[in-house]
Amino acid sequence: MKQVQSAIAHAGVSLADRKGVLGTLMLAPALAYIAALVAVPFFLAIGLSVSDATVGDPAIHHFVGLRNFVRVIHESAFHFGLRNSMIVTFATLILILVLATAESELLARDFRGKRLVQILLILPWAMPVSLAAVGWLWLLDSEFSPVDWLLRTAHLLGPGTLFGPANHLYYYGREWVGIGAIIAINVWRLLPFATIIVLAGRTSIPRDIFEQAEIDGAGFFRTLFHITLPALLPILTVAAMFTALLVFGDMTIAALTTRGGPGYTTQLLPYWAYLKGIEGGALSEGAAIALFLFPVLLVGAILALRFAYRTESA
Amino acid sequence: MATLELRGIKKRFGDFYAVDGVDLMIAEGEFLAILGPSGCGKTTLMRMIAGLEPPSAGEVLIGGVPVTHLPPRARNVSMVFQSYALYPHMSVAENIAFPLKARGMPKSERDTKVKWVVGLMGIEGLVKRKPGRLSGGEKQKVALARSLVRDPSLFIFDEPLSSLDAQVRAMARGELRQLHDRTGVTTVYVTHDQLEALGMGDRVAIMNRGQVRQLGTPQELYDDPADTFVAAFLGSPPMNLIERDNRIIGFRPEYLQPRADGSLAQGALVFKVRIMQLEFLGSEWLIYGVLEDGDGENRLLAKVDQPVASKLRSGESRDFVVERSCLRFFDKTTGLRIAPSAAKLTQ
Amino acid sequence: MVLALRRLIFYVMLALFAVFAVFPVIWMVITVFKRNVDLYNPNNNPFIYNLPPTLGHLEFLFTSTSYPTFLWNSAFIGVIVVIITLLLSVPAAYSLSRLVGRWGERSGIAIFFVYLIPPTLLFIPLYQIVSLLKVANTVWSLILVYPTITVPFCTWLLLGFFKSVPREFEEAALIDGCSRFSAFLRVALPLALPGIATCIVFAFALSLSDYIYAAVFVSSTASRTVSAGVPTSLIRGDIYYWQSLMAAAVIVTIPLAVAYGLLFDRLVKGFQSDPGAGEKSAA
Questions:
Q1: pLDDT at B345 over 50
Q2: Is the pLDDT confidence value at C88 over 90?
């Protein structure tokens, strides 16, 4: 009995044993960091948006109410920005979801040279966004674009052809072609990422479901629409959220390709907030524009999460 | 080796009591089985003994020392999990050495210990493998080795045989019990399988709805169930329970026999039974019957030998008899045992 | 016959996806070695070398620009950010998944909302904070702010991962004589390695890819990253050093693509637990 007592007594209770204390200690650094560099700036941004701060005088002195908001929403650049941000986000989202589902369907199978294909397919995502934008800028150059050259060679571009009469498409110089180019770049660079997420969902669908479907005589499309897609819905929602977030909040592509032009016709909200707040020096108005992004993302995320939970519990 | 004592242990989750006041005293070297249906609180109770869950009220004492507020590592208990919980990133040898390493034992000493336990369990051939490449039975042996390698005060088993095939399981039961007899470590064995509990336990605690309904040797539990729950839970098939004269009468199927010619023993009970079906069990037959003279429909089971069964036909009505000494009486509302039979007052 | 047709469709689809992904990069690679006279003639076939290829633009990139400095800065920042991210988010995710109880269970979503706050909204105040801390114009300003992107994302990712590791392993470790903390170190952590590998890749990729913070917070060439340094130093007014620009992009991309491509299956595994799945196993 003595032995037992000493065996029990020798190890006391330390901090490392106590669930609550240890949990708090382990959580604290991340929480402190997030509080200092996300929460504080977030509220500063709200503060800025209702003040009259500028780059020259960045302190928040005067409360001006919603004046900045009222002012920014009356500008045509804001209208274009909002419209284009919506269009670009939705178009990219739809294209990405369709393409990522298709691509994951291909990659869920085993085939020879899969590693090489994976390397090729992930390439766009490995390129830093700004360099990808520059690459596409050159790919769709107003004078030397190889795409134009291909179209001209195929007699689809040039005087008297389908896309003519000019010899060039001037991608970044025309409103809708410019928006289309921005969508294309977004789809290109985010498709690998979305595919990885969808593939994660795709490979965790139990294999016997597909085998059952095959035994039941379901063809490829019936299996896709009745089995694969419903099972993928929750993960597609996650992929959609990430994609929307990354597209809607991005200004790099616009900043390096169309620069919002011609005029404000290809302007995007985040880039306009940057131009106004940093380049233009009107910190408070820039913050007000950026704040418009948040509720849109919030509502989108809540809807998506609700949807994901509902489909999962069903 | 140590005693284990539980005093008024309770565990509340929200407004639900998973364990609702359990008192137990387990002697040094005893093998106690805790038996109950799923959701009866046995797993929660075991987790509180191990220190994985703090009790809402009550005390746990190991070797007379209160350990209620001590973490598992300070209790010197070892445990075999239902899934065995072998660390997938370590080899078998590393798994077995882990408890020693966690206690800071020097490597040379560790190696001797591991070698000893590996020999004891007969798993020398497995030491280099990863758990992912072991069969169910091999995993169980490794898990046992891991819990044996240090000298624990207390062994806890959480349904360690439930993932084995029926054949391996019967073997493992015997081996486990032998192992206990050889090491003599106080053991708490949690299971929902009455064959394991009755076959291995020195004593068995039967739990239901967070409480211990009865604690006793397997024989006591079988012969003298404390209430209708224990009566209906133990035995396969379970005890017949029939309502008569505002109380419940219980008797085991093997005591219900067709009435033989000649006189009845004193106080024996006679039932008029219509035989519904006869089922062959191997050494004996199981008779499914319906009570004909009862109010409402009462189903009865009888277990009879081959020669007796050969005289019975499905569909016929027969008189069946139970001797007085084999009857047990329970209160109709509480289900508790009343007036224990005169023949057996062992409890 | 049907099978052969199916295979054909499969490979055609695969080829189409591969071409879509690779075509711009191939164009970039072709450009790198083109002479100016060849490049700037709209009548030339742009896909072939009408004049012999040259290494001149690569040489220009490495000798006449700060590209090597950019590479070093990006690598340095990336590594430090990965370390900080792991130090912050691994314990946080473990704590949320195991230790802090009820309010930790729903935290997957809360973390997600942190991730929702767009950098565009934060960077004006963050710039003020960076100036206040006197780290503006240094690599440290970026090391300070990049975890705002990587920590929520990696915590969210790891949270799902820890939740998918059965608790029994850690409980066995507790019984075997570990404290909660050493059970985390010795058992939970090794089991979460695939998730951690995914986090390393994502944290590095996210920090490498950022342009806004890198362009706004740092203006001295010596402290710039690849992302911000290449476009600003190789686009001078309306003069674009196309071949060198493309070389700069391709040189960082191809090794990373090979690394990420080899880790592809692991990255997929890292996502194999969404916030919803974690909730269910916790219930």
A1: no
A2: yes
Q: C173 contacts in B (CB within 8 Å)?
A: 87, 98, 102
Which residues of C are less than 8 Å from A206 in CB distance?
Answer: none
Domains of chain B: 4-223 (3.40.50.300), 228-338 (2.40.50.140)
Would you list the DSSP string of B27-78?
A: -TT-EEEEE--TTSSHHHHHHHHHTSS--SEEEEEETTEE-TTS-GGGTTEE
- DSSP per-residue letters across C235-268: EETTEE-HHHHHHHHHHHHHHHHHHHHHTHHHHH
Distance from CA of C269 to the nearest CA of A (A): 6
Kindly state the tokens that stand for B206. 């039967």
Nearest CA in chain B to C169: B85
ipTM of the assembly? 0.85
Residue of B nearest to A2 (CA): B63
Residue range B72-131, pLDDT digits in tens: 888 889 899 888 889 998 999 999 999 998 888 899 989 998 998 888 888 888 888 998
The answer to whether the CB atoms of A1 and B153 lie below 8 A apart is no
Question: Helix C67-94 crosses helix C147-164 at what angle (to 10 degrees)?
Answer: 40
Final residue belonging to a domain, choices C54, C81, C98: C54
Interface check for B69 against chain A (CB to CB < 8 A): the answer is yes
CATH superfamily, region A74-313: MetI-like (1.10.3720.10)
Q: How far is CA B171 from the centre of its chain?
A: 17
pLDDT band at A183 (very low <50, low <70, confident <90, very high): very high
CB A54 within 8 Å of CB A61: no
CB contact at 8 A, B232 and B335? no
Q: Is C17 within 8 Å of chain A by CB? A: yes
Chain C: give the shortest CA distance to residue B54, in Å: 14
Residue B188 has φ and ψ, to the nearest 5°, of -115, 125
Residue C98 has pLDDT above 60, yes or no: yes
Q: State whether C97 and C222 are in the same domain.
A: yes
Band (pLDDT 50/70/90 cuts) for residue B204 is very high
* pLDDT of C106: 63
How many Å apart are CA A272 and CA C163, to the nearest integer?
A: 41
Contact (CB<8Å) A8/B76: yes
What pLDDT digit, counting tens, does each position of B149-202 carry? 888 889 999 888 887 777 778 888 888 888 888 888 899 999 988 888 888 899
Number of domains in chain C: 2
**pLDDT value at residue B343:** 39
C209 near A CB under 8 A: yes
Interface of A with C in 188-207 (CB under 8 A): 188, 191-192, 196-197, 199-201, 203-204
Same domain, C92 and C42: no
Q: What is the pLDDT of residue B205?
A: 93
Question: Over the Cα atoms of chain B, what is R_g?
Answer: 24
A278/C124 Cβ within 8 A: yes
DSSP for B125-152, please give it: GGTTS-GGG--HHHHHHHHHHHHHSS--
Measured between CB atoms, which of A23, A29, A200 is closest to C100?
A23
Which residue among A48, A118, A274 sits closest to C125, beta carbon to beta carbon? A48
Radius of gyration of the CA atoms of chain A, in A: 26
Of the candidates B64, B69, B153, the beta carbon closest to that of A7 is on: B153
From C118, C181, C271, residue closest to A196, measured CB to CB: C271
Chain A residues inside the 8 Å CB shell of B153: 4, 7-8
A88/A270 Cα distance (integer angstroms): 12
Confidence (pTM):
0.82
Instruction: Show the domain range for C43.
Output: 2-54
The amino acid that residue C179 corresponds to is S
Chain C's closest residue to A27, CA to CA, is C92
* DSSP states of B114-131: HHHHHHHHT-GGGTTS-G
| % residues pLDDT > 90 (chain C) | 15
